[in-house]
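2024-03-11 09:14:02 INFO worker-7 job=invfold-0412 stage=load source=structure_tokens
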């Protein structure tokens, strides 16, 4: 008796099943990484570094680079305008700074900048920015940037304003990494690193953006939570009454213990270690409400304080017996360091993926 022949419908069904199995296998081979953290922690900078290191076309082609020009122009102009506003606020609210004043030349440059009808950095705007950046009043505001909402990297762009104003300007890697703009929604990209496929998601860190995170939580291999070390004396962008480090610790506790991530690798990046080291020389960590109670030691010693901060975050893990937090001190603007750290965390990510597939215990 001969074998029963399959009908065309059965053959089509078998092909579809085979394709679905292949797709499922391919999906399981991709490691899904989720960058989470408070606004201003450096998540998006790390995401940009990964693209620069591992993206197609060695990161950014000319067309991609030109898309950053408007962000760079906006940071240069808007941040300097904010400085000018802060001068007046500071004089009104703080007797110590009542004599902070622009020079006559500075006032002329300020008038020119404030009346400009565009954010594009023309030669005239570049001249005005260059003049204002030399003003002691502007330097004072920049020194107080932790409470004035001035971005650290604005100094770099003000120093580079003449180059950036050129007609043939194309943002280089450093410009792209340092430009600061607020991430809204979800940005995602796939990378192949040492023959491993990663699907990386970067989401906005502001409170208004956090409600969108839940859509990314399913089937995550690893969460990389990014916290800024240098924010311990800063206030939140959305809430001037709340310390940024306090918000970051509270958010980490919520994420680390979220039921969605019970079997997910939890990687903590304590970021901006370079800015932290500089700030620590003049501002002890005990100015932060989260650190001024039980810290014992030298509040301006880098090793002592970073170990303490690491312990504060890791202590928020409510299941230390079954869930480990893998912590790294990072500097997102340092390409070589990001590459080294990411190579280290790959082992954690891959082992977690094998464990979830039942391939290792």
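2024-03-11 09:14:09 INFO worker-7 stage=emit residues=361
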């Amino acid at each position: 008796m001969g074998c029963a022949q399959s009908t065309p419908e059965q053959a089509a069904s078998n092909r579809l099943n085979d394709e679905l199995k292949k797709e499922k296998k391919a999906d399981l081979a991709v490691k899904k990484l989720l960058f989470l953290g408070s606004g201003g922690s450096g998540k998006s900078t790390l995401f940009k570094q990964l693209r620069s290191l591992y993206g197609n076309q060695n990161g950014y082609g000319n067309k991609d680079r030109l898309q950053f020009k408007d962000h760079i122009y906006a940071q240069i102009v808007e941040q300097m305008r904010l400085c000018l506003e802060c001068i007046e606020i500071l004089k009104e609210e703080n007797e110590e700074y009542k004599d902070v004043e622009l020079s006559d030349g500075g006032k002329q440059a300020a008038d020119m900048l404030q009346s400009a009808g565009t954010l594009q950095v023309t030669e005239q705007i570049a001249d005005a920015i260059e003049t204002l950046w030399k003003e002691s009043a502007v330097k004072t505001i920049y020194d107080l940037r932790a409470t004035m909402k001035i971005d650290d990297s604005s100094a770099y762009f003000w120093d580079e304003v003449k180059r950036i104003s050129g007609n043939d300007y194309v943002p280089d890697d450093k410009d792209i990494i340092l430009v600061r703009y607020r991430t809204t929604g979800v940005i995602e990209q796939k990378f192949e690193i040492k023959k491993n496929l990663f699907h990386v998601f970067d989401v906005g860190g502001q409170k208004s953006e956090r409600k969108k995170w839940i859509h990314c939580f399913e089937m995550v291999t690893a969460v990389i939570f990014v916290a800024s070390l240098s924010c311990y004396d800063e206030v939140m962008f959305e809430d001037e009454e709340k310390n940024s480090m306090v918000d970051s610790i509270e958010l980490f506790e919520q994420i680390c213990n979220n039921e969605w991530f019970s079997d997910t690798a939890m990687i903590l990046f304590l970021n901006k270690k370079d800015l932290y080291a500089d700030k620590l020389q003049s501002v002890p960590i005990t100015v932060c409400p989260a650190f001024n109670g039980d810290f014992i030691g030298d509040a301006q010693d880098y090793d002592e304080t970073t170990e303490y901060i690491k312990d504060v975050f890791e202590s928020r893990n409510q299941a230390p017996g079954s869930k480990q937090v893998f912590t790294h001190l990072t500097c997102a603007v340092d390409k070589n360091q990001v590459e080294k750290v990411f190579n280290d965390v790959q082992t954690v990510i891959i082992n977690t993926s094998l464990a979830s597939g039942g391939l290792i215990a």
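2024-03-11 09:14:09 INFO worker-7 stage=report msg="The radius of gyration is 24 Å."
2024-03-11 09:14:10 INFO worker-7 job finished
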